[in-house]
Amino acid sequence: MGVKMANDVAGIAGGTVVKTRSFKLTITKNLEKQMELGSTNVAGIYNTVLDVAGDMELVYDSDTMMNMVVNGDRKALQMVAEGKGLIGATKKAEVGALLPRVAFSEWSKSSDANGIVTQTVGFT
Fold first, then answer.
1. Rounded CA gap, 104 and 72, in Å?
2. Integer Cα distance of 79 and 74 in angstroms
3. pLDDT digits (tens, 9 = 90+) for 6-30
4. What is the predicted pLDDT for the residue at 121?
5. pLDDT tens, 69-112?
6. pTM metric for this prediction
7. For the chain, which residues make up each domain, given as ranges?
8. What HEC string does the chain produce?
9. CATH T-level fold of 2-123
């Protein structure tokens, strides 16, 4: 799985790929029921605020991600997970998402002295 980051969507194509160990994306629709006076039935279900949040785990190799959180950076973010099998002769199966503007809000680092040190970065 790879993640590309850039200052805006136009820069994603040339953005640097950041290798991630894991990635979690949560999309919450926040539906709201609408009731009508005199009825016990739901008259409609409407969307309110769409929340998109997530976090990614990376190998800790620099303070770059921590600095992005501390500085309150906002970036365009594209995630792509690519399969191993081919579709046709040359194309691999892939799934992904492009988020035009995310704010990095949380950062933590593992402290395992006997393993690979990782960092987790949260965004909204």
1. 6
2. 16
3. 999 999 988 888 889 999 999 999 9
4. 96
5. 999 999 999 998 888 888 888 888 888 899 999 999 999 999 88
6. 0.77
7. 2-123
8. CEEEEECCHHHCCCCEEEECCEEEEEEECCEEEEECCCCCCEEEEEECCCEEEEEEEEECCCCHHHHHHHCCCEEEEEEEEEEEEEECCCEEEEEEEEEEEEEEEEEEECCCCCCCCEEEEEEC
9. Pnp Oxidase; Chain A (2.30.110)
b/e map of 92-121 (b: 16 or more CB within 10 Å)?
A: eeeeeeebeebebeebeeeeeeeeeebbbb
Tokens of 124: 């909204």
The amino acid present at 46, given as its one-letter code, is Y
